[in-house]
Amino acid sequence: MTAIAIAPTGRAGPSAPTTVHLSGEIDIFTSKALRQRLLSTLLYSTGVLVLDLSRVSFCDATGLAVLVGIQHRARAQGVTLVLTAPRPDMIRLLRVTGLGRSLPMMR
């Protein structure tokens, strides 16, 4: 099991998105810490929060719940959440669960 790593690229300006690079597994063991870190990132995000999923190797239901929860919190703060560069397995998971329609993705 690999823990999820989070690396924000820094504070975004009013027109620049905040980008967070995730890597590893998003699962029951890592979801709590990921949720806390993303909530902290939302404190300084303006406009758009981009989650780079290119190095996420696995995601389970608790990981999906974190993404949905962060999207709801972001929306309440006027921030748009966008997922970018998901691997084929992640794309398939989002489509099968129907979350591909509600979580915006850029490839």
From TrEMBL:
Which InterPro entries does this chain map to? Answer: Anti-sigma_ant, STAS_dom, STAS_dom_sf
Question: Pfam families annotated for this entry?
Answer: STAS (PF01740)
Q: Which domain of life is it from?
A: Bacteria
Residue ranges constituting the STAS domain according to the UniProt record: 20-107
Similarity comment text for this entry: Belongs to the anti-sigma-factor antagonist family.
Designated name of the protein:
Anti-sigma factor antagonist
